[in-house]
Amino acid sequence: MPGISPEVISHKLSISPAHKPMKQKRRSYDAKRYKAIRTEVDKLKSISFIREATYPVWLANSVIVRKAKGGWRMCQDYIELNKACPKDSFSLPRIDQLVDATADHKLLSFRDAYLGYN
C-alpha cells in the first residue's frame, strides 16, 4: 500500500512450483463496462495503489459487476491463481475478534471497510 514501508508489513504468495503460470484470455465488455473499468483503473493508478506490469507471469481478468445501489464494482478473477496457492491449514479467526484485538493500537487500517467488503 502506498505510504507504508515494507519493513512494517509485506505479503508474498506461496505459489506451488507444480503449477504453470496462467494468463487468462482477454474478456470483452460493452462500452459502459469498459468506461467503468477505465475509471477505476485510472483512480487506482493516480494514488499509486497499482502499477502497470510490462511482462506479467500471471494475468487475471477484471470482472465488473453492478452494485445494488447503482454504479459498478471491479473485482479480479483469481480462480487459476487460487488453485496454484496451497491452502492454509490455520484459517483466520472470526473477523470481529481481529478488529477487537486491534483496539488501542497506533496503526489500524479499515481499507475498503466503508464499501461493505468486510
Automatic annotation (TrEMBL):
Transmembrane segments: none annotated. InterPro entries: DNA/RNA_pol_sf, RNA-dir_DNA_polymerase. PANTHER family: RNA-DIRECTED DNA POLYMERASE HOMOLOG (PTHR24559:SF431), TRANSPOSON TY3-I GAG-POL POLYPROTEIN (PTHR24559). This is Transposable element protein. It comes from Prunus dulcis. The lineage of its organism: Eukaryota, Viridiplantae, Streptophyta, Embryophyta, Tracheophyta.
